[in-house]
Design brief:
Blueprint: H1 20-24, H2 33-42, H3 44-49, H4 54-60, H5 63-70, H6 73-90, H7 96-101, E1 109-112, H8 128-143, E2 147-152, E3 160-163, E4 169-172, E5 184-185, E6 195-200, E7 203-214, E8 217-223, H9 231-234, H10 245-265, E9 272-276, H11 282-295, H12 299-307, E10 310-313, E11 324-325, H13 327-333, H14 335-341, H15 345-350, E12 363-364, H16 365-372, E13 375-378, H17 381-390, E14 406-407, H18 420-429, H19 433-436, H20 441-445, H21 452-481, H22 485-490, E15 500-505, H23 521-528, E16 535-540, H24 548-561, E17 570-573, H25 578-587, E18 590-593, H26 605-611, E19 615-619, H27 622-631, E20 639-642, H28 651-675, H29 684-697, H30 703-746, E21 751-758, E22 768-776, E23 785-794, E24 800-815, E25 818-827, E26 834-842, E27 857-858
Parallel strand pairs: 1-2, 1-9, 2-8, 9-10, 10-13, 13-14, 15-16, 15-18, 16-17, 18-19, 19-20
Antiparallel strand pairs: 3-4, 5-7, 6-7, 7-8, 11-12, 21-22, 22-25, 23-24, 23-26, 24-25, 26-27
Helix pairs in contact: 2-6, 8-30, 10-11, 11-12, 12-30, 21-25, 25-26
Length: 859
């Protein structure tokens, strides 16, 4: 039966407790131990049964509990203290951004992402990408960066996981109850919901806009499940990463195009748009269309103006992680853009192709973002290198290390993950600045002063808490599955509070090799069951619903866990989420990560563990490659590396070699170090490694450092460049587009006719050489180009490797549009076989990079 009208029932609070509502509707509570303790104090049982959702908790709590709290002086005092801290935080007066750059009346940045992981009660994320996005917002809030987030509000979000009797992953989808979540619907002045349209196949699909308050940052989420839409369009925001290719293109048009229009409808004009992965890349086309329509610009002119304001972050080196659409699907859904932008199908499709002239190539959202954004980056140093190799064909003949894709290494938001006990230890020995300035290396050096006994006893408390949680979780799993009572009761006896505990929890993609430990099951069983030095392992994680190989890995692990001789030492916890993750990263002794290099873009779970004093054991991939390299040479190691970054042609052989290395590390180093105790029963060598890990890694692998880096390297630069291109009726954008057209037409005439250098055959180390080149520029002038001497060591294949470019200056007009360019005083700082050549690139003061796809001429 359909209602004739709907209304919302909101929590009823005594006037003296009314501001609990302010705390509940601001997701800052998700990273503030004091606020969480306040809600737990109000009703700890309701806090747990609500799924850590204070809005739902306040709507279902018994009135008598509120009456008791209102008359409880201790609770009122606690509330007042939390509110003072909350109000001071929200004032923005002392934020890093305001201190460094002043107040900003408009949002500087709009951060677009298909998923945001903020807290477990708001199920609109699948894994690391979403958690990174959520923590980007949290650190932007802490730092006072004027940023807004834009995403989709999924009715069912990502799935809940359970295992059947065979250990095979099953998926269950539960509807999100938006009215009982920390969300508010954006409304017009008349009270009706604010909606925006997106045209899909000639019809308007409407989306309403919800707002999640993330500290000082607003996150706007679009929802199509409204009566104004056809029933089929309700499903667009039904499931995260659900449906077929057609559903995916609808979702991505809603995110990019609808999100752009939502900001307009809200009266927001960000200077910069940050695309977190390629899902939102259609916003670039909408941005260009709006400039064409409102500023009387051509497509080429609007593209220059729009590109200046776009930042793009790619997150995966795995080809399957990028969205590809067949050309006919793009043409059907984006036909309006051909007409409105005044371009043909070849131009439109070419924006998303590595080879714009290959009409068989699919349209890739990552390629669209890379072509449109002025600034692009990977998420770790190694991932930056891999990304430059992956997408090198977009910039043909440019050496891969010079492809204009940089890197900003990911981090984690410490206060969302550090346990209350470690929070208190850091307050005592590091001081309050670890919360305010976690990117300050000097703060973390103080970790060496934490008393060994205090650090270890704190960690033992958290390990015991993890064991207790794992037992409860396992018991609940068995009860849901209808296991025999004897098996259910045995769940209370699994694991050991004092045994070396290894945690492995992440998405179960096959390249992450969760089953690497099972390579030699008999050897693993001996390690686990050593009576003097027992080891236990806790696994958790989900495979994508369509990833059957990933599900098979889970099945293999669960089957091994159920074997009688190891069932007390190894468990798999179903339905991995943020709550499970907190217990694991806070209570494990070792955090295990075994991706096949170089397929892990970054990985952040190990960073969360490190912030809690947990030691990492990982292959040299993603962030750990960077962390291990930076920490090499430390007197006390920060963890362990499996291998030395080797990559083998045979994956099975690589698995065999690295499994053997893993077992050896456990047997010869990790287990003996953990159980080596002095008279005081403290594993002092282990504790020294914990301190070294905290002191060495924490200052860098946090989202405060990451967001500051994005702000200083990209956001402010992009905002300034975008503003300059828009001045005087977009005069510089128009001029840049005209210059590009002229250069592109003239480029076939550009060639290097001759190159000479002195001395010719031998140059002493640090000796000087001079080189000159005669260059034909056709209709261009020396001001239109940069000419460079490119030199470096020559490898066995006769190729210059990791070359460097030295500028050459025009010194003589030879007539007939020929010029002589000269480089003087060039030196080589080491001996060996070197080579050189000369190259010509287009150059203009308004270009972000001189590497322009297709325009590079070599001698």
């Amino acid at each position: 039966m359909k209602p004739v009208r709907t209304f919302n029932v909101v929590p009823s609070l005594p006037s003296s407790l009314e501001r609990l509502r302010d705390l509940a509707y601001n997701l800052r509570w998700s990273w503030d131990h004091g606020t969480i303790a306040l809600f737990r104090r109000l009703d700890s049982e309701q806090w747990e049964t609500s799924g850590h959702n204070p809005v739902r908790m306040l709507g279902t709590i018994d009135q008598s509990r509120l009456d008791t709290a209102e008359s409880d002086d201790g609770f009122r005092s606690h509330l007042d203290g939390v509110l003072r801290y909350f109000d001071a935080y929200m004032s923005k007066e002392k934020s890093w951004f305001r201190r460094e750059f002043g107040a900003s009346p408009e949002p500087l940045v709009a951060y677009f992402s298909a998923e945001f992981g903020l807290t477990e009660c708001l199920s609109i994320f699948a894994g690391g990408l979403g958690l990174l996005a959520g923590e980007h917002l949290k650190s932007a809030s802490d730092l006072g960066v004027p940023l807004v987030g834009v995403g989709l509000l999924y009715q069912q979000g990502y799935f809940s996981q359970y295992l059947n009797d065979a250990g095979w992953q099953q998926e269950a989808y539960r509807d999100n109850d938006f009215s009982n979540l920390p969300l508010l619907l954006e409304r017009r002045p008349d009270g009706s919901p604010l909606v925006v349209p997106v045209t899909l196949l000639g019809r308007a699909v409407w989306a309403q806009i919800w707002r999640a308050q993330v500290g000082r940052v607003n996150l706007y989420l679009l929802d199509t499940n409204i009566p104004a839409n056809a029933r089929e369009d309700w499903d667009i925001t039904d499931q995260l990463y659900g449906g077929d290719l057609e559903m995916r293109i609808k979702q991505e048009m809603l995110l990019g195009i609808g999100g752009y229009r939502a900001l307009e409808a809200l009266g927001l004009s960000p200077a910069v748009y940050h695309m977190n992965e390629g899902h939102s890349a259609f916003l670039a086309l909408e941005h260009i269309r709006r400039l064409v329509q409102t500023q009387n610009l051509s497509f080429a002119q609007a593209r220059e103006a729009a590109s200046a304001s776009l930042v793009f972050t790619t997150h995966t080196p795995v080809p399957a992680g990028h969205d590809y659409f067949p050309p006919d699907l793009i043409e059907r859904y984006l036909a309006d853009y051909e007409r409105d932008l005044g371009i043909d199908r070849w131009t439109l499709l070419g924006l998303g192709r590595q080879n714009p002239f290959d009409d068989r190539e699919y349209f890739c959202m990552t390629v669209l973002a890379l072509r449109m954004a002025a600034y692009s980056n990977g998420v770790s140093r190694l991932h930056g290198q891999v990304s430059r190799q992956m997408w090198q064909s977009i910039w043909p003949r440019v050496p891969h290390h010079e492809i204009p894709i940089g890197h900003v290494t990911n981090g984690v938001h410490f206060r969302s993950w550090i346990s209350r006990e470690m929070d208190q230890i850091y307050d005592r020995y590091l001081g309050p600045r670890w919360k305010e300035e976690p990117a300050d290396e000097r703060v973390w050096r103080q970790a060496e002063h934490i008393p060994a006994e205090e650090l270890w006893r704190t960690h033992e408390i958290r390990r015991a808490r993890l064991v207790s949680f794992a037992r409860q979780r396992l018991r609940a799993q068995l009860e849901r599955r209808g296991a025999p009572q004897a098996e259910i009761e045995q769940a209370d006896e699994v694991l050991n509070n004092r045994a070396l505990t290894i945690g492995f929890a992440r998405r179960f993609a096959t390249y992450k090799r969760a089953s690497l430990l099972l390579r030699d099951p008999e050897r693993l069983a001996r390690i686990l069951n050593d009576p003097e030095k027992p080891v236990q392992i806790i696994f958790s994680g989900k495979a994508h619903p369509k990833d059957n190989p990933g599900k098979e890995v889970i099945r293999q692990i669960v089957a091994f866990c159920r074997q009688h001789h190891v069932r007390h030492r190894m468990v798999f916890l179903e339905d991995y989420d943020m709550a499970v993750a907190r217990y694991l990263v806070q209570g494990a002794d070792v955090w295990l990560n075994t991706p096949r290099r170089p397929l892990e873009a970054s990985g952040t779970s190990g960073m969360k563990a490190a912030a809690n004093g947990v030691l990492n054991l990982s292959t040299l991939d993603g962030w750990w490659d960077e962390a291990w390299t930076e920490a090499e040479g430390k007197a006390v190691p920060v963890g362990w590396a499996i291998g030395r970054g080797e990559v083998y042609d045979n994956p099975d052989y690589q698995d065999e070699v690295e499994a053997e290395a893993l077992y050896d590390l456990l047997e010869r180093d990790i287990i003996p170090t953990f159980y080596r105790r002095g008279p005081d029963e403290l594993p002092r060598e282990w504790i020294a490694r914990m301190k070294s890990s905290i002191a060495t890694l924490c200052h860098f692998f946090n989202t405060h450092r990451m967001v500051r880096e994005y702000t200083e390297r990209f956001y402010l630069t992009a905002a300034d460049r975008s503003r300059k291109l828009a001045e005087d009726d977009f005069a510089r954008a128009r001029a840049l587009a005209a210059w590009k057209a002229r250069v592109q037409e003239a480029w076939p005439q550009v060639r290097v006719e001759s190159v000479e250098a002195e001395p010719k055959n031998e140059v002493p180390v640090r000796g000087r050489m001079c080189a000159s080149a005669q260059v034909q520029l056709g209709s261009l002038t020396p001001d239109d180009v940069t000419v460079q001497l490119y030199l470096g060591r020559v490898n066995a294949d006769g190729e210059i490797v990791e070359g460097r470019a030295e500028p050459m200056r025009a010194v003589e007009d030879l007539g007939e549009r020929r010029y002589r360019f000269l480089a003087e005083g060039v030196t080589c700082h080491e001996s060996g076989l070197f080579g050189y050549t000369v190259r010509v690139l287009p150059h203009h003061p308004d270009l972000v990079t001189d590497f322009w796809p297709g325009l590079i001429t070599w001698a």
